[in-house]
Amino acid sequence: MTRGAPPAKQLAVAEIQAIADKVKFPLEEKFLVFNAVEFKSQGVAGRTFFIKVQMDDDFVHIQMFESLLQENKSVALTSYQTHKGRQDEVMCF
Q1: E-assigned strands of the chain?
Q2: In angstroms, rounded to a whole number, what is the distance separating the alpha carbons of residues 45 and 88?
Q3: How many CB atoms lie within 10 A of CB 37?
Q4: What are the mean pLDDT values of the chain's consecutive 10-residue runs (93 residues total)?
Q5: Are the C-beta atoms of residues 55 and 29 closer than 8 Å to each other?
Q6: How far apart are CA 12 and CA 63, in angstroms?
């Protein structure tokens, strides 16, 4: 996680898949595959995640926000971009 600087791309790990899975239901209704591939995160009054998710043969970039622990809020889907390809870099949006 970076603070202030542009985040660096990282391969998704089990923790990121678990975060992405929190918004899986509204996005996966038409897809059999929902795998986090890579991500960027940025710390600003919590953590914002930008995650590339493979959904069958297509890719979706999702933006999620995890509030500070003391705020006791769940992770929320804040935005997503569809029709992305394997080579499209996951960007802050």
Answers
A1: 10-11, 35-43, 47-55, 58-66, 76-84
A2: 28
A3: 16
A4: 61 81 66 83 86 88 85 82 90 82
A5: no
A6: 14
